[in-house]
Amino acid sequence: MKKLKLVMVGNGMAGVRALEELRKIAPDIYDITVFGAEPYANYNRILLSPVLAGEQTVQDIMLNDVDWYGENDITLHLGKKIVKIDRVKRQVVAADGTTAEYDRLLLATGSNPFMLPVPGKDLQGVIAYRDIADTNAMIEAATKHTHAIVIGGGLLGLEAANGLKLRGMDVTVVHLPQWLMERQLDEVAGKMLQKSLEDRGLHFLLGKNTEAIIGDEDGGKSGHVKAIRFTDGLEIPAQLIVMAVGIRPNTALAESAGIYCNRGIVVNDTMQTYDPRIYSVGECVNHRGNVYGLVAPLFDMAKVCANHLANFGIGLYKGSVTSTKLKVTGIDLFSAGDFSGGEGTEEIILSDPIGGVYKKLVLKDDRLIGACLYGDTVDGSWYFKLLRDGRAIAEIRDSLMFGESNTGDAGHEGYSAAASMPDSAEVCGCNGVCKGTIVKAIKEQGLFTLEDVRKHTKASASCGSCTGLVEQIIMATVGADYSVSSKAKPMCECTDHTHHEVRDAIKVEKLLTIASTMELLAWRTPNGCAKCRPAINYYLLSTWPHEARDDPQSRFINERAHANIQKDGTYSVIPRMWGGVTNASELRRIADVVDKYAIPTVKVTGGQRIDLLGVKKSDLPGVWKDLGMPCGAAYAKALRTVKTCVGSEWCRFGTQDSTLMGQQLERELCRMHAPHKVKIAVSGCPRNCAESGIKDVGVIGVDSGWEIYVGGNGGIKTEVAQFFVKVKTHEEVLEYTGAFLQLYREEGWYLERTVHYLERVGLDYAKKRVLEDEANRKALYERLLFSLDGEPDPWHEPEKALVDMRQFVPLPA
User: Which of 351, 388, 466, 734 has the greatest number of CB atoms lying within 10 Å of its CB?
Assistant: First the structure.
């Protein structure tokens, strides 16, 4: 049977969830085409605030990457906005002229941020907070400016303010009502939230109405924002203004096609519009007079829509009861239902301002109709279930305030809340996942980690507010296995000791050889293996520099041969170029070496060096000698490259001399060995042409000095570096960078990149050791310089570097 054509306009969470459900229940009915106006595949818009805060990356919040569409035979058009629907021809038209015919059309156009209609709203530096582009704009602004205003003290505004504060900006939140999140919190909880955020350094102006935004060029559109003025005459400076004052359903496309809209695209309980061939889901929808901006009801819509697109003809969407969770790390807040009170209602309140806990439960006709929790939200999902189910609470009224575990409600007194929950209890409201589904997946799929459960069930994969409960369910289901899996693993099968224990023993007992280490720690395999010997060798050398002796036979082949072995058995040689800078003499020597040794391939690397590929092993010593350049260590667990841009010496946008800074860093650190490879980049301005944001250490020049970022990785999984510190001088860049890398050298496990080291110990820990403790920072830096003093270049000092030159002599034929 010929497949029908389904076209979806919009590529957000609600629409893609509908496609996921459709593919699950009816995989062969439709040829599907998707148009997304953004240049990204489907991502979790809810988690933009952790991206802004630097807690996650854009890659972390991707729900369905581009490959997913191909794997599901879905044609994807990114960066293409649909501008016309021809309902007669049943065709959609994109702005670039691309067309697609449909038998069924799904509109998932989402919503647009509302911008206050005040003078100056079009100035540069005035933005909304809605998508990845807005998030990136705020992150970039935080590298250039210091003063930010967030208009709107609701959920999104507070998350934006918190993220900008963590990015180093001075942030003031402007809000017209008298307390924060007035739609989700009562006044007491709102004031407690304000106090918590003020303790984090945020400022608040409540009861303020914006009159105008003032620019630096008489308010013209070409100018940049410089201040904000309120109706009471108060004026305060601002270099960035974020409007988070609400959203409006994006109905323009539907209206232009004559589809009935009224504060949203009007749909029935099967998610059909007034045109039965056209469906709609998400924030663009008006269902029974309600417009939803939270993900759980949107996913409910998606499931019903998929059911009807599959021609099953069952399932109705009747509306949703919603709950709210603030995504600001360290602040626990939950609200659901109607907690404003009113005729016929009664309130149960627990207030502990000193302890930072406030709970308000609103009852009516023996049922819970509203809950507002601050500081202690562990029972939020239970209250939400009581509220949604409309269950009578007379029997548990006396202990209702004290949570599920104190009511005996689940019938398993003494068990944890997770263990006592019935299988039918909903755990993840966003994705509609109940406990039974999670437990079944754990048992049948052999799952032991949160990541595995997220992958197989989607529980905790959206807003993340149920993460703690999901972890409790895993622990309650797999018991001791979860505890074992969360422990540090032994270094290898030769021992039960962990990397931490081995390193501690080397330091405490002053062990200087691999043999003595294995003897003291009762190694099961006398000579160890390819996993433990290189690790122990590194720990010895990094703990006792100039005392422990390197064991070349405990290194991998690349580090023994001091070149990269290739798949055909030849080697790659990369000479070091300080900061990516070379000269005519070096280039002539490289060209002569290529000719002399008949090297087949010469390639410029991503680290701004020249790679000679296809060198015979027997030719390596001759190539090194004839090049006359330092070893680039492209093969080593060591400093690889320091990538630079041309900086202020040449670039008209440059603010600092990045080339000189990069050369100074590379010359100082060039012989530094580490747990894994280390890459550094120095950019001369926030445009970041050297890609400093994805390096182990990234240095970015700004007007007043240098910003240092740490923990980036451009490998298989790209990790964005985190802001570490801002300094003024080249000398400070060297000291802070060196101290951080020495901390990593002393504490990182062998083959652990900086990003994974920071995931293990926490960025705050590294800041405490390097930034807050000046004496410790200087001691770390001094230990680094001591360890590097006299470290030989293996290409030009092979005897000192213990290079076994016999390995390069060809065996007799």
Answer: 466
